[in-house]
Amino acid sequence: MFNAQQNDFTFDWIKYVVVAAGGLTLLLGGIVLIGWYTQSTFLVQVRPEFVPMQYNTALAFIFCGTALIALVYRYSRLVLLCGGLSIGLSLLTLLQYILGLNLGIDQLFMESIIVVKTVYPGRMAQITAFSHLIYGIGLVIACGVVGSKWHDVLNGLLGTIVAAIGMGTLFGYLLGAETPYGWSYLTYMAVHTAFGFVLLGLGLFIFAIHKGLREGRRPTWISVAVGIGVAT
Predict the structure, then answer these.
(1) Residues 32-61: what's their mean pLDDT?
(2) What is the maximum alpha-carbon separation in the chain?
(3) Which pick of 16, 32, 70, 84 has the fewest CB atoms within 10 Å?
(4) What would the pLDDT profile of 118-158 be if each residue is shown by its tens digit?
(5) CA dihedral angle for residue 19, residue 65, residue 136, residue 163, rounded to 10 degrees
(6) Which range (14-18, 41-45, 146-150) has the least confidence?
(7) Exposed, middle or buried by CB within 10 Å (0-12, 13-18, 19+), for 227?
(8) Whole-angstrom distance, CA of residue 123 vs CA of residue 51
(9) Where are the alpha helices (DSSP H) in the chain?
(10) Residue 114: enclosing H or E segment and its boundaries?
(11) What is the pLDDT of residue 62?
(12) Which stretches within 39-148 are classed as H helix?
C-alpha cells in the first residue's frame, strides 16, 4: 500500500513539473507578445544590446507551452493542433532561409521595429526555427495514446537537444561571447528564447520519463540522451 501511494506521489510530482514547464513557457510567450503590443524593449529584448524575441517566436512558445500542458492531461487534439502550428510556422521560416524567399509571415501579425542583430526584420533565427520544428515533431510523437520504448527515446532525445541548444546559448550570453549558434550573417537567438527552450526541452524530457514509467517501461535511454545533449 505504501509503495503504491509512493509511486502515485512520484508520478504526480513529475506531472506537475511538466505542467509548470509548459505554463512558464506559455507565460513567457504571452509576456513577450504584450511587449510587442506595448513596444516595451525590456520585454522584447531584456537588454538594449540583445537580439529581440520575434513575435512569431513568442507565438510558437504559446503553442508549444499549451501543447505540453495538454500532453499531461491527454488532450490529444489540442496537442496535435498546437504542435502542427509550431511545425508549420517553423518549417515555413526555414524554407524562407533555404530558398531565399519572403512568404510574408515574418511581420504578418506585427511590424518589427527592433532589428538588433537581425538580418530579416520579424524573422526568428534559423536555430530558433529548427528548435521549434523538432519540438513540434516531438509533441506529435508524444501524442500517441499508447506509446512504445521508441516513442520515449525519440521524445527524450528531442527534448534533450532542444534544452541543450537553449542552455548553450545561455552560456554564451553569460560568458559575454557570441552565442554558439549565431554567426555574423545570420540572426541570433534571443536570451529569453534560449530560456524558453530550456524549459520546453526539460518538460518533454521529463514527460517521456513519466509516460514510460506509467506504462511500465524503464528509462534506460537517459544516459544516451544526456550524452547527445552534452555533444550538442
Answers:
(1) 92
(2) 62
(3) 16
(4) 778 889 989 999 999 999 999 998 886 445 667 778 888 99
(5) -70
(6) 146-150
(7) exposed
(8) 12
(9) 2-38, 41-45, 55-72, 76-99, 126-142, 149-174, 191-214, 222-231
(10) none
(11) 97
(12) 41-45, 55-72, 76-99, 126-142
What span, in angstroms and rounded, lies between the C-alpha atoms of 123 and 100? 13
Whole-angstrom distance, CA of residue 209 vs CA of residue 218:
8
CA distance 64 to 29: 10
Assigned C-alpha cell, 16: 506537475
* Res. 185 pLDDT band, cuts 50 70 90: very low
pLDDT at residue 182 greater than cutoff 80: no
- Chain centre distance of CA 143: 16
Locate 92 and state its grid cell: 515555413
Cell of 4: 503504491
In whole angstroms, what is the distance from residue 154 CA to residue 225 CA? 9
C-alpha cell at 201: 526541452
Handedness of CA 68, 72, 78, 81 (dihedral sign): positive
Tell whether the model's pLDDT for residue 183 goes beyond 50: no
* pLDDT higher than threshold 90 for residue 85: yes
